[in-house]
Amino acid sequence: FGALEVFRKFMTRRPDARTMLQIARSIGTENVTLLPVPDQEVPPAWKRVANGLRRHSKERDSAVVSYHYDVSNRFYEWILGPSMTYTCAAYPDVDASLEDAQENKYRLVFDKLGLKPGDRLLDVGCGWGGMVRYAARHGVHAIGVTLSKEQVEWGRAEIEAQGLGDHAEVRLMDYRDVPERDFDAISSIGITEHIGRKNYPAYFRQLYAYLRPGGRLLNHCITRPDNVGKVKAGQFIDRYIFPDGELAGAATVHLEAENAGFEVLHEENLRQHYAMTLRDWCANLVEHWDEAVEEVGEPMAKLWGLYMGACQYGFEHNKIQLHQILGVRLDAAQTWDVPLRPWWEP
Length: 346
Hints:
346 residues; 15% strand; Rossmann fold; alpha/beta; seven-stranded mixed β-sheet
């Protein structure tokens, strides 16, 4: 009995966040099966290969990013709220709002990277430019790159509206094609899940090459709670939500960063924070259900309700985690200039 059939039978009326979560819990994340659903699906993985789209080629990555992120900026505004931030927030306390928690996440990343006015930041997979704008407001020259045309359009408009054009830029560009070098820091917030496990070595080598000696990397990504078993997403997620998504354990991410030359300075798990983030996104979808259905149609809105409810369950029950890993590119003498103890507020 598939999850999508549950939605067909029981989700004909306006849902609430509790109902969405209960459905995900009752089914179990392992039991979400494919059924004929709305037109919003992508071809199965074998057909993508047959069509000449090699897994994680630049062309295929561009296509799958467009599938997920170019749905509708307005739809994302209903779910994500004013920050337009589609990654795990960092809640300073249990009563914090989603907006405050997202701003605090950017503050945490900024502080871990030790950024200061005049520094240069590269944000790979920048989304709608939230990290870029935060850094620019604090005097940092920031470049963000994404493969989503909708994100670029929205991000550029917001940069202009906030008067940050002298310090902030959002580009429609693959992270592998950035021409600049010698960045003081790189933030990678939610891109690792999209690049494919086999590409981790090349990914970390590329980011290493972008940094100056002494430069820092903050890698923020969803992870598995272990480092064994399959890394590919289930069929439902791959077919309808995140095509080609893959998750590895935090130790695997840590290992590949070190193998590329980074010295890892710090690592933390924000699993509880992502459960709270998804709780708030689900609440936003419920609050704006009618508008969301009008914008993208009821089938898409239902898919998103199921997807976010199931993910909330996954984070609450340690099916998936969220890790931030901080690394530094050492200089030629294999030394660095960082404080002896963590220098940021948690």
